[in-house]
Design a protein that fits this description.
The protein has 293 residues and is mainly beta. It has a domain at 23-210. It is 12% helix and 43% strand. The strands form two sheets. Strands 3, 4, 6, 7, 9, 10, 12, 15, 16 and 17 form a ten-stranded mixed beta sheet that branches. Strand 16 (243-249) and strand 17 (255-262) form a beta hairpin. The two termini are 14 Å apart. It comes from Ancylobacter aquaticus. UreD, UreF and UreG form a complex that acts as a GTP-hydrolysis-dependent molecular chaperone, activating the urease apoprotein by helping to assemble the nickel containing metallocenter of UreC. The UreE protein probably delivers the nickel.
């Protein structure tokens, strides 16, 4: 899900919703399969507000890798939204899904917006989902949950990021952010879980757990790696981008998790792009082509 900010996002009267009474409960599903030396989209169910482009072959050194841009037709997520995205990569399929721009979470009094993502990576597959940051507007509540099922020889990259923004420049905080991630093997055995919760008041306060940083992100790297990631180089190069980053091993030999704090949403977007290149090279042994947005 993604939207670019436009003038309508900044002209909503204070205390009102851009879409009063909006509440959507929909599921989108995308299945990828390997055939004829390339990856094809074999099933696509993308009801409103989801939208997608056609798959692109952007990587000359990996012609079997399909890149697909996720888009939105609605201008963001709203009060009471319950959106689900189901992604599947069959045996040997290779796909990268990324958003076209950042996603706005509008104010959600008493009913947070929810986005649930299910990812299934089959044998010898590669599946990446790298959304641009979610932008939390004042009084926005957002629950992001992911369920990832990965075969032992599959490779997966999943990232998300969050930043706060007040269109009226009054430093009003969002309501609450919750994140939930569960990683399992194909037999259902648990590999790792990760959960977080942060109120907007804590985020914006003087004792914020983020310190001076105002945006945060994480990236999961699952599966066998062809190269290693140098943590010292990672720290140095991320600092040059206005970010603070660290890397940890997941339990049960599941892979890696990278954390990122950034001074602004813009710094976060640059930092997460850098992390994708770094982790892609570690998993695939090739540098990814630029994803133009």
């Amino acid at each position: 899900m993604n939207v670019a900010l436009d003038r309508s996002d900044f002209l909503s009267p204070a205390g009102t919703d851009p879409m009063p009474g909006a509440c959507r409960d929909v599921t989108a599903a995308l299945d990828f399969a390997r055939g004829g030396g390339r990856t094809v989209l074999t099933r696509q169910h993308v009801p409103y507000p989801f939208h997608i482009t056609r798959p692109f072959a952007l990587d000359r050194t990996l012609p079997e890798l399909a890149t697909l841009y996720l888009q939105s037709s609605s201008g963001g997520l709203y009060r009471g939204d319950r959106l689900r995205l189901d992604l599947r990569a069959g045996a040997g399929a290779m796909a990268h899904l990324t958003s076209q721009a950042a996603t706005v979470i509008h104010r959600t009094p008493a009913a947070p917006a929810r986005l649930s993502t299910s990812i299934t990576a089959g044998a010898r597959s590669f599946l990446a989902l790298t959304n641009d940051p979610f932008i939390l507007f004042p009084e926005a509540g957002f629950v992001s949950s992911m369920e990832i099922t990965v075969a032992p020889d599959a490779r997966v990259i999943v990232s998300d990021g969050f930043a706060s923004h007040d269109p009226e420049a009054r430093s009003r905080p969002f309501e609450r952010l919750e994140t939930r991630t569960r990683i399992c093997g194909p037999d259902g055995g648990l590999i790792a879980t990760d959960r977080g919760s942060l109120s907007g008041l804590d985020f914006a306060g003087g004792g914020s757990p983020l310190g001076p940083y105002r945006a945060m992100g994480s990236m999961l790297v699952l599966g066998p790696r062809l190269g290693e990631i140098d943590p010292h180089r990672l720290t140095t190069e991320m600092e040059a981008l206005g970010c603070c980053a660290g890397i940890s091993e997941l339990p049960n030999g599941g892979g890696l998790i990278l954390r990122c704090l950034a001074l602004t949403g813009g710094h976060l977007a640059q930092g997460m792009d850098y992390l994708f290149v770094l982790t892609f090279m570690a998993l695939m042994g090739e540098r990814p082509a630029r994803r133009r947005k």
